[in-house]
Amino acid sequence: MVDETRLLLTTALHTAIIYVFLIVAIRLFSRRQLGQLSALDLLILILLGSAVETAMVQASTSLRVGLVSAATLFVINRLLSLVMLKSRRFSHLAGSGPLLLVHNGRLVEENMRRLGLTKEDVIEAIRGRECTSIEEIRYAVFEPNGEVTVVRPDGAANE
Asked: What is the rounded CA–CA span in Å between residue 108 and residue 128?
């Protein structure tokens, strides 16, 4: 009984550590959100899940260990969401705010680099908002949810 309790507590601890590590790694390596995933991004996410699963459950295939690991992920995720609601500073560290991609018909290349976006990515996003060229845009903003909001010179917004 003591060994099983130790296994479950260690599983919860390993899961929590891996969760925090993955948040930091994803934050450092990519600001793209789910709406912006490429096939390679999706592949990396799937492989990450597989790569860390054994460490989270300590090579145990028992139902209890799997449930503890899953429950730990849900609890930590909920706690992180609550902390982000309360703390603007933490929210900025864990997530991201909106970033300007186009200003008065010109690309804001520094913000594109920060997001890991190419000119082609931005052009594709604005085409999805029924704009044919960057020059016809007053500004385009990369929103925290991964969407791009486009405002034309007449003030009309395409979301």
From this structure: 19
